[in-house]
Amino acid sequence: MKKILGILPHSIGGRLTISSVLDGFRLNGFGVVIYDELKNDDFKIFLNDDYSFIVGYDFSPIKLKVDYNLNIPLIAYFSDDINLKTAGVGYIEYRKYLNNKDNYIFYWDRGLAKKEKLIYMPHFVNCEIYKELKLPDKAFYDVSFMGRLDTDLRLRTFIELNKQLKDLKFSWHAIEKHYLDALLRCKNNEEKEIIKKSYCGFIDNEIDMASAINNTKIVYNINAQGLSSLNYRTFQVLACKRLIISDKREELDLFNNIVPYYNDFDDLAGKIKFYLSNFSEYEKVTQKCGEIIRLNHNSKDCTKKMLEMIGR
Fold it and tell me: What is d(CA 302, CA 24) in angstroms, rounded to the nearest whole number?
C-alpha cells in the first residue's frame, strides 16, 4: 500500500482543512501516517518508513522537508496568502522553496493562484462526514457564525444582528482566547450578555463541526483572505445542506451564483429573515448546492484530481 506522511499543523483552521485532504488520500487507497505538530515531539521517529508524499497545510510540510533535508515529494495545500503571517511559521524564509523540484503547491484562491503561478484548487470536504444529519426545521439555532470575531466588522455585525433579530437563536463557535477578546471589546453589558449567551465553545474536529452545522439553519460568512475565494466554511455548510449567506465573492460562480450574498448589514439581516420564512427558497439553494459539492468538491475526487494534475 502507498503511504503518505500527513502533517496536522498548529493552526486550528488548518487542521480542519487538511483533514479533508488527508481523508481524500485514504479514500483513494493510501495509508496515512499522521505527525501532529501539537501532540508529537520527535518528528524523526516518523521517518522510519517509505512515503509517496509528505502532505500538509500552508508552510508546515515545507518547513519540515527543508529542516530535515527530506527527499520526499511534497504536496502543500494553502488557504492562506503565502505573503501573510497567517500562512504559518516560516512564511518569509521558506517561501523560496515553494517551486523546488517535487514540491507541488495547491492554492485555494483563483485570483491569487494566477498571480503567484501556483496550482488552483478550491476547497473540498469529506462528504462521508459533512452531510445532512437532521432536517433544517429540527435545528436548534437559527443563525450561526463560526470563527474569530477578531475585527470590528465581524464583532459589530454579530452583535447588531442579535439586537435586530431578537426572536432568533444565535450561536458562535471560536477558541476561548477569541471569546475573551470579544468580551473585552464589547461596549456595554448588553453586548457582553449577547456574546456570553451565544458562545458555544470551540470545535477542533470534523465530526463535531458537521454536527454543529447541522444544528443551525443559516451560517453567515465573512471571508477574511484572498482575492476571489470562498473559505472552507462555505463548503462544510453546503455539504450539510445548510444555507450559507456569504459576502460577495467571485468564486460563488462555483455554485452557479445561486448562493445568496449580501452587500451590507441591512441586506444580510433581510436575507436571513427571508430564507427563514421561505423554506421552499431555502431548500432550492441547499439541495442544489449540496449536489454540486458531492459532484465537484468531495475529498476522494478532488484528491485524485490533484494527483492527476501533478502527473502522479
Answer: 7
Residues 253, 226, 73, CA angle at the centre, nearest 5°? 100
Ordered alpha helix ranges (H), the chain: 12-27, 60-67, 110-116, 152-164, 176-185, 189-198, 206-214, 232-239, 265-277, 279-296, 299-309
Q: Name the one residue in this structure whose C-alpha cell is 427563514.
A: 276
Per the listing, cell 521517518 goes with 47
Q: pLDDT class for 11, splitting at 50, 70, 90?
A: confident
β partners of residue 104 = 75
The residues near 81 (Cβ < 8 Å, ≥ 6 apart) are: 87, 109, 112, 225, 226
Residues 149/254, Cβ–Cβ less than 8 Å: no
Are 196 and 183 a contacting pair, CB within 8 Å?
A: yes
Tell me the per-residue pLDDT of 21-55, one tens digit each, with 9 for 90 and over. 999 999 999 999 999 999 998 999 999 899 999 99
pLDDT, tens digit, for every residue of 259-289?
999 999 999 999 999 999 999 999 999 999 9
Bridge-partner residues for 93, per DSSP?
Answer: none
Q: How many helices (H) and strands (E) does the chain have?
A: 11, 11
CA 286 – CA 119 distance, rounded (Å): 29
| Dist. CA 303–CA 126, nearest whole Å | 11
Residue 102 DSSP SS3: coil
Check if the beta carbon of residue 77 is closer than 8 Å to that of residue 122.
no
Q: Which of 240, 190, 179 is nearest to 214 (CA)?
A: 240
